[in-house]
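A common beginner's mistake is to predict each chain separately and then try to dock the pieces by hand. The better habit, illustrated here, is to supply every component at once so that their relative placement is modeled jointly.
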Amino acid sequence: MSEIADRETKWQARWKEAGLGRAHREEGRPKYFIVFAYPGSSGFQHLGHMRGFTYADALARFHRMQGARVLFPGGTHASGLPSVTFAAKVEHGDPDTLQGLKGLGLNEEGIARLTSPEEAARFLGETYWQAWERFGLLMDRGAYLTTIDPDYRQFIRWQFARLEQGGYLVQKPYYAPFCPRSGPVSVDPSETDLSRGGSAEIITYTALPFTLDDGRVLLAATLRPETVYGATNVWLPPDGSLEEWKVQGRTYLASPAGVAKLLEQQGGERGGQVPIASLLGSTARAPLTGERLPLIASQLVNPAVGTGVVMSVPGHAPADWVAIGELPAADAERLRGATRTIIDVPSAGLAPSEQELLKGEGAPAGRAIANIGVQGLGDKVRLQEATERVYLLEFSHGVLSVGPFAGHPVARARTEVAQQAMATEGAVEIREFSEPVVCRCGETVIIRRIPDQWFLGYGSMDWKRETREAARRMHFEPREYGTELEKILDWFDDRPAMRQGKWLGTPFPRDPRWIIEPIADSTFYPAYYVVRRYVSDGRVSVDQLTEAFFDYVFLGRGAGEPSVDLTLLREIRQEFEYWYPLDLNLGGKEHKRVHFPVFLYNHVALLPPEKRPLGIFVHWWLTSYTGEKISKKDVKGGQLPPVDEALTLWGADAIRLYYAIGASPSQDIQWDREACAASGDRVEETLRQITALPPTPAAPIEKGALVAHVDRWFATRVVGLLQRVRESFEGYDLRTASQGAFVELPALIRRYRARGGDHPELLGAVADLWVRLIAPITPHIAEEAYRVRGGKGFVSVAGYPRGTELPAFPDSLERERVVEGVEEDVAALLKVWKKAPAKLRVFVAAPWKYHADARLRERLADGPLNIGRYMQEAKIDPALQPHMGDLPKFLQEVRNTGLSGLPPLLSPGDELATLQESATYLARRLEVPSVEVWTEDEGAPHDPANRRGRSRPGKPALALE
RNA sequence: GCUGGCGUAGCCAAGUCUGGUCAACGGCAACGGACUCAAGAUCCGUUCUCGCAGGAGUUCCCAGGUUCAAAUCCUGGCGCCAGCACCA
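With all components supplied together, the output reads:
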């Protein structure tokens, strides 16, 4: 093990031994309760996962050092599919998974155990916890949980009982993926249940009824029901049969595949076969318009898609347009002149590519065909493009121009037409996957209607309104997320809260066939962390976690669980009252639209306003380098290293600093190995420097102890820096805070020393503050340095610098600025001054200029400078009168810069004294053998170019020789 | 399309809400120097252009506009990213 790893494990062990992570309530003392959105137990963690956890720890540490009692718990989310997937990978012998497990030191037997999803979840959870410890996270192990623990399940049962009681659960029909052989399945990209089709979406068609003369009804499935006003005919497959579907006393016709879907989704029963040939040549009455349309066969129609019957809208559907063009003469005759344009797209405001699409005359579909150059029905790629573009364009910009909904935008008319067709014409919805979905068992997955699905009623206006109000009182980081969340709440709708299938989770108490869905069981859990500590140390048993228990602890309602000792019960209630509300919930940007909204909703449903969360912190991701076109030599970071490897290479402190200083949290960081390594160097250098500084003085530095300008200046700058760092932490700005602690402070010390500063007590005091300053970000080296410097206890619980620890001398900053100005100016001069200078003369402005300057500031404060008036006044000012000739030039220079362009105002004596005191420094620094400081009106040495005349208060003139 | 975000010097990335202190923090990289037998680390300097006196010019995706003043505000355009639901 490396020296770094040894150091880090040593301190982690000591923190654990001292119990620093354990939360202790102390009434009357401020508290800070922070959680991160617990990770799903899906596999091995990498550096990307650790970014947010580190932020949470840095904030928790900062507040702990500020004197707050901190509750910083963590857990893992084992519900749902991830652990099931992982266990399946173990079972199937997935090479990456097995290699990872062996890397963690598991033997065959240990690995075999992980084929159980529960075991896998617990195991993964432990590896996460270990990673958190190794990153230096100071958390309360007593609160650690996984969501499949029996006590957690008790908690979830209580939560859902309360939600149901409060009317937050609703039951209504739902359409879900279903395997006829294996039962409910999940269609998601991990394809745990599937052998193909994980990225399929469920598409909802409207099946419009077209009535034949004999009363039977053809169902034509469409995604664009509003185009019924432009329908010219009905397409049927070229051969085969349709099938009857009988429902509610009516008989519909659709393809056999279509009928199969309808039976699953709508019920009813199958009827007889109807040969398509028997239908061709007749007509059907269209819904809503009542027009009679011819039935025509076409290759266009795929009986497997939708209902196998399609209404033809050649004006707006490129495929229909092309199909009609390719019809035999007899069929074409029946349609002549029927193509219509029923959607207008105003050309104003269209993107050039959209304008291009609609160039020309005639129906939009025909124009798109011509402009894209579709060659015929066989030209599938271009036909597809034309279809998609017309569809999108008309959906987003089109306005319906005929019928009762004329004038309505297509996006709106579409639902209006569908609603009306369903209400008055007997239209039905039919759903199918966007691509074939096949179960692991080999069976094709279908969509089945579940009549009594449980939802969380997030669409409810009352609940939504109260949640929005709660959000308005919260703090969001970044602030933009607050406005975004309001928008999200606007469209947030009921969500299925349970499912039937093979998932990990808690059965719904009222009906255990339902397993509570993973998003739904991870909304109110911060509250349970408080209780969990009493379960893990055995003071409360699982069977004591009754509804009465939780009612009392969380809501203060009822007498509580009688089997729990009353004193203990009261204590737990007090704990909850102490820690709640939650100060901060921190999570990655993937949680913006799902977890954070429901987290808030549930707190609103269950708790009174004063107990609702106070803040949400969203961080972006650490991304791996994905560019492909750049040659390998240029590839910066490459893949994200696994946690173990990264810790061995650089150590936790280095990575923590890298996270904190690399970018602001609301920005993806692209992994940069070299930058991470460099931050490791910085960490080690910081440790070296702090330990090399003089010892911490026994007593605070008194104001009187600092006499020299550099000492005063240094102390003042440090004070400002400490304040800024603390404020940055309070404002969640970890980047600025780290920059101050790791970049600016060492730079300040360097300059202080370069300026000749060497006040041992002052440096010692600063070193002690520095150790504390860095502790939230790099706790291990902070402890190390703290101990080496003789600190007592742990710096992790020492006080955080506030900026009141050192005396400050505001005027010293202005003095120093004069010196800095001279440095900058000389550096600029030397750039163009080719020779090596032998001597630098510095001329401080003559006293009358200070007088003129003071007057100038008064005038500028009133508005733009009136030079004429100023001169009038100067004439009668005895101090300025002798210098009337020089005044205009003096004034001219400030005329354009205004007040803000003026350097700080010092007294002439202060400026002169500061520069004299700094002459040696300037000589060394600027590599000029001799530096002399004069005043402008002092007896002049050699000054042929009359440089001295340039001098202004705060900005002395310079002469190089 | 909807919702949100982004476009800053070789690369990463602050600054934009609250216009001036911004040729624009910080990091990486590169170059020069100090130190070293050497390497690494560390320290100093340089990295838009021009300039033999502290200056000037041109920049913050593009084009306009507001303003004494714009990376920052407004309008329009171009380009890119994420999410869009049952998936954690």
